[in-house]
Amino acid sequence: MAEANVELAEPNAPGETVGPMIPPTGLAPPAHGTWRRLLRNPVAAASLVVLLFMALVALPAPALAPYEFARQDAGYQLAGPSARHPLGTDDLARDTLSRLVYGARISLTVAVLVEAFVVTVGLAVGLIAGFFGGLVDTALMRVTDVVLAFPEILLAILLLGLFGAASARPEASLVLVVVALGATGWPSLARLVRGQVLGLRKREFVEAARALGATNGRIVLRHILPNLLSPLLVAVTVDAAGVILAEATLSFLGIGVQRPYPSWGRMINDALDYYEYHPRLLILPSLALSLTVLALNFLGDGLRDALDPRARNRS
Amino acid sequence: MLRFILGRLALAVPTLLAISFLVFFAGYLSPGDPVDIIAGEKASAETRERVRRAYGLDRPPLERYGNYVGAIVLRGDFGRSYFNNGEPVTAIIRRGFPTTAALAVLALALSLVVGVSVGILAAVSANRPPDRIAMGTALAGVAVPSFVLGPVLVLLFGLRLGWLPVQGFSLNPVDERLYPEYFVLPAIVLAARSSALIARLTRSSMLDVLRADYIRTARAKGLGTGAVLFKHALKNAFPPILTVAGTTFGYLLSGSFVVETFFTIPGIGYQSIQSILQRDYPVIQGMALLLATIFVVVNLVVDVLYGVLDPRARLSGSGGRRRAGM
After folding, report:
1. Given Cys at both, which of B71, B123, B220, B299 links B206, Cβ 3.0 to 4.6 Å?
2. What CATH number has the domain bearing residue A288?
3. Fold of B102-281
4. How far apart are the CA of A265 and the nearest CA of chain B, in angstroms?
């Protein structure tokens, strides 16, 4: 990421502990004090609150939402906010609050599933390429290079087009979106992991473990993986923001999550015919989307700083 | 230098072949029978058979792939649309491409001008209010997607103030004149995100350079701020910005899918989405190949330009530097 967070050298707050062992290749394993440093950063703490709120709303959505997301309340088309519909209704008389709540569920589900996919594949490919090197490395990196040459969203659009996602059932469309975003997302993580592994592989503690007779498997599991945790955590957080944005974009275009599922992107598209007189229909899902994306970006920045306090003053 | 360019070219060909293979078989394996899409599910067996033969759908897949690639290489023929009476895909592309390219180039110029100047301004005033405001705005530019920014700007400048047209496209089909006002909002919406990214990158790149010794020397020998900034600093801060301009072009092309759809501008982005919604596979495949080719060429050009600007890159080969700014 093009990071522009250049802070002028400011001394660490008194009493702040600097991580004991920070590899020059990147971030230290999450250690004691990370959490405290994270929460002391007001922007990161606020982002965490926003995301926790989204998650707490999304998980019990069926119990929490006043209406089912596709339920039409006859006679209440495009109704303004009222006791019956706290945030009003859309053109099909569906409760906006309920749809926003279910929309959070869709966004977070897609983000979690895609990141699970990306981490699994990216970690496997990156570890194999970085640890074994040679021809395997060259071949794997050639593939990631090709995929990386294209904007993820464009690849996802074309994949979904070729899969025929626009005519899929809603549940199937959700799966297709996850597959498309996962398939286009893993190469950048694989690159990151590979780079880290290349650095870690040459470190003294790995050499020492090898000298003591540790097997490759043990070295990867006990010595490499724990050191990958921090950069992975940061990368996954920031990437999740991109995934949520991408899902909304695809759904906006009509080739992502299909009706009647209330993806925020779809809600924004559905609002286009009415927003001149009912801007609420456009603004509410947009706010939910932008807030979530911003919070994830800020949390990622905050995590990076909290995991590596020494790097804070680096450009 | 020639060797460097030829090496890059040699890589581009297998890449494109692999992409054409993927594009073709993704379409082939996608659910549903293309004949249903072309002739409709209720068509008679005879009609279906005729359609199947006319589109070559009765041949084995590998042969069809061979024919597909062969026709493209030999005749520049990307097949025919399943709709519009079987209009050739190339005709559809030729119709939409100039619009999309014009919009993308306009947005690229806009985001370079805005991004680089805002980035320099921010770097010069690092951590003071102008910098904070610029970077705050840039962050919003990254977090607010174009399909939100578009409606908001249209609501404001199109519907409420009535200064600019709400949708449509500037080359009027009736009098074939160019109406530039139609391009204003789409270009701004399309450029917003990349301006923000370029501004952030320019700022950090400039800050890195401004700390260098030769900048201090230039200042010490009495050069004015302008000369230091533009002659010394920007020149060295520029290669990473150029790299991103290359990737930006890619984002602008994909961004045009959303912007063209929202403003109903008949470029290739709009056309692709229509084809996807109709499941018009030959058009989707043609668009995918066209976009892939554009990307490979743009990356090639950026690589070569980078090699010219920064001779070190020529020696180290690809060495992962291209993504340095990402």
Report:
1. B123
2. 1.10.3720.10
3. MetI-like fold (1.10.3720)
4. 8
Nearest-by-Cβ selection for A157 from B138, B257, B279: B257
Given a contact cutoff of 8 angstroms between Cβ atoms, the answer to whether B132 and B245 are in contact is: no
Min mean pLDDT across A107-116, B79-88, B108-117, B192-201 is at B79-88
- 8-state DSSP, B88: B
What whole-number distance in Å separates Cα of residue B289 and Cα of residue B283?
Answer: 10
Copy the structure tokens of residue A115: 């990141």
Q: Flag if A286 and B143 touch (Cβ within 8 Å).
A: no
- Cα angle at A227 between A221 and A231, to 5 degrees? 125
pTM given for the model: 0.83
Q: Which of A265, A276, A289 sits opposite B155 (nearest CB)?
A: A276
Mean pLDDT of A297-306: 89
Instruction: State which amino acid sits at residue A201.
Output: R
Reported ipTM: the value is: 0.80
How confident is the model over A150-183, as pLDDT tens digits? Answer: 778 888 888 888 777 777 888 889 999 999 999 9
pLDDT top residue among A90 and A113:
A113
Q: How many domains does chain A have?
A: 1
Q: Hey, what are A223's tokens? A: 């010595």
Q: How many Å apart are CA A162 and CA A285, to the nearest integer? A: 28
- The minimal CB distance from A290 to the residues B23, B148, B299 is found for B148
The boundaries of the domain holding residue A247 are 2-314
Could you give the CA distance from residue B34 to residue B82 in angstroms, rounded to a whole number? 8
- CB–CB of B155 and A275 under 8 A? yes
Domain borders along chain B are: 102-281
What's the whole-number mean pLDDT along residues A5-28?
41
**Residue of chain A minimizing CA distance to B33:** A164
Amino acid at A51: L
